[in-house]
Design a protein that fits this description.
By secondary structure, the protein is an alpha+beta fold. The chain has 4 domains: 126 residues, Alpha-Beta Plaits, CATH 3.30.70.330; 167 residues, RRM (RNA recognition motif) domain (Alpha-Beta Plaits), CATH 3.30.70; 92 residues, 2-Layer Sandwich (Alpha-Beta Plaits), CATH 3.30.70.330; 77 residues, RRM (RNA recognition motif) domain (Alpha-Beta Plaits), CATH 3.30.70. Helices cover 19% and strands 23% of the residues. A 6-stranded antiparallel sheet has the order 10-11-7-9-8-12. A 5-stranded antiparallel sheet has the order 20-15-17-16-21, with helices on one face. A hairpin with a 4-residue loop joins β2 and β3. The radius of gyration is 27 Å and the shape is elongated.
């Protein structure tokens, strides 16, 4: 084998692949060391795409290395310079990149070349498609000036909450995130995110566009924004400028801890959680097949590497797959005169399938609520902790218990412990349910469905008034009179009405379905 054909990889050239240093002069062929044994050509190619066109790739699995051929030496130099200060990862494993002694890859006679070329064509086409919308004045094969450092992100199918911390956790894996602004527009949860370097933005877009944060939901749609700089006025749970920790939190927003300044600009670092979800750090999804449970990462900052699965299209977190997390909530500061296990089942059932409820026998102001999984438990906490319920401010956090025990036969209980595992009222028992796309925080406006034709506006207004609510507005859906919106006097009134009237028998074999709405009348 001569120097220009590393592809043959026979024993006569072993010395040329040894050594950890790179005395070689710049070459458009790069050598990647310590690659995972199961890495694919497409994953290796993806490391080079942000820097220009990739013309060939070779994986030498038995030596845990790969060779990547760029279209130009300039692109290869940019790639090496970038990864000198930022460690690249393949399948959660750090890899080392250096110039190869070879000037080109000759792999025509090797097996699997058809597959390799197909991967090259597909990924380069995706890169070209992205570049085509921007200026054509850039050097050939490089990033274009029109691709700025600000990304516009739309989160589709928003079933679980996507917090600013979760966004930081994901996108900071691709470079220093300077600013984030979250907002809702056209009934879509959107994000503007600014990197320190346009190359980081391009790499993040290539890696994350179309991926889902959680299984089958919270899908990222990413494009470049026309904005060149974001103006952040407040540091709170909706927006943050990581370069300025003197900004106010804004009216009604919890102040942020200044300790986040110590981690700004650090790679592979997860934020501590914000005050709205006490005790929780950001969480990510499991790999395909592991289901929805997501473990919380409590306490101090945790190093983490975000990867994406080419098969599932989900964002995954190495080292946590299969950890069930805790699905049992401790709910406290309840009104013992008004609360019942059924009431907690209905309320917490808005945010997940409740399996068991236990009101404490000797302390009826507290209860345990067991959700179907840990992610649903966190979703319930994020929406219900701090919500007023029967005149008191409800507190919800994780319990130290892993399950709610049913009372033993003959044990005194007074009906305070209930098993709802097989209840027909679970909202999310069917995969792909539309309920997954319509989960919102408690609001004064309720969405009603499954209304029979014989029930009038006055019938429904009187029904809700009977719960003690003030009905401020009502309207049927124009295209579907089985559904309606009703606006009550306050969020607390709506919470009480939902508890009392969800599954209410309206006759004609119709039971009313009640949920919180994101709309107003």
């Amino acid at each position: 084998m001569n120097d220009s054909t590393p592809a043959t990889d026979n024993g006569s050239n072993k010395k040329k692949f040894k050594g950890d240093t790179s005395p070689c002069s710049p070459s458009r062929v790069l050598r990647l060391r310590q690659i995972p044994s199961d890495v694919t050509e497409a994953e290796v190619i993806s490391l080079g795409l942000p820097f220009g066109k990739v013309t060939n790739v070779l994986i030498v699995k038995r030596k845990s290395q790969a060779f990547l051929e760029m279209a130009s030496e300039e692109a290869a130099i940019s790639m090496v310079n970038y990864y000198t200060s930022t460690t690249p990862y393949l399948r959660s494993q750090p890899v080392h990149i250096q110039y190869s002694i070879h000037r080109e890859l000759k792999t025509d006679n090797l097996p699997n070349q058809a597959r390799v070329q197909a991967a090259l064509e597909a990924l380069n086409a995706k890169q070209s498609e992205s570049l085509a919308v921007t200026s054509s004045s850039a050097p050939e094969g490089g990033l274009l000036p029109g691709q700025g450092s600000v990304l516009r992100i739309i989160v589709e199918n928003l079933f679980y909450p996507v917090t600013l911390e979760v966004l930081y956790q994901i996108f900071s894996e691709f470079g220093s995130v300077l600013k984030i602004i979250t907002f809702t527009k056209y009934n879509q949860f959107q994000v503007l995110l600014q990197y320190a370097d346009p190359r980081n933005a391009y790499y993040a877009k290539m890696a994350l566009d179309g991926k889902s944060i959680y299984a089958a939901c919270c899908t990222l749609r990413i494009d470049f924004s026309k904005l060149t700089n974001l103006n952040v006025k407040y540091n709170n749970d909706k927006s943050r400028d990581f370069t300025r920790f003197d900004l106010p939190s804004g009216e009604g927003q919890p102040p942020l801890e200044p300790c986040v300044a110590t981690v700004f600009g650090t790679q592979n670092v997860v934020f501590p959680s914000y005050a709205g979800v006490t005790g929780f750090a950001p969480v990510m999804s499991f790999a395909q097949g592991a289901g929805l449970p997501v473990p919380a990462v409590p306490g101090p900052l945790v190093s983490l590497t975000v990867t994406t699965s080419s098969t599932s299209g989900q964002i995954t977190v190495p080292g946590v797959t299969g950890v069930p997390g805790n699905s049992v909530l401790l709910v406290s500061n309840l009104n013992p005169e008004a609360i019942t296990p059924h009431g907690l089942f209905i309320l917490f059932g808005v945010y997940g399938d409740v399996h068991r409820v236990k009101i404490m026998f000797k302390k009826k102001e507290s209860a345990l609520v067991q959700m179907a999984d840990a992610t649903q438990a966190q979703l319930a906490i994020s929406h219900l902790n701090g919500q007023r319920l029967y005149g008191r401010v409800l507190r919800a956090t994780l319990s130290k218990y892993q399950t709610v025990q049913l009372p033993r036969e003959g044990q005194e209980n007074e009906g305070l412990t209930k098993d709802y595992s097989n209840s027909p009222l679970h909202r999310f028992k069917n995969s792909g349910s539309k309920n997954l796309q319509n989960v919102f925080p408690p609001s004064a406006t309720l969405h009603l469905s499954n209304i029979p034709p014989s029930v009038s506006v006055d019938d429904l207004k009187n029904l809700f008034a009977s719960t003690g609510s003030v009905v401020k507005a009502f309207r049927f859906f124009q295209k579907d009179c089985k559904m309606a919106l009703i606006q009550l006097g306050s969020v607390e009134e709506a919470v009480h009405a939902l508890i009392e009237l969800h599954n209410h028998d309206l006759g004609e074999n119709h039971h009313l379905r009640v949920s919180f709405s994101k709309s107003t009348i």
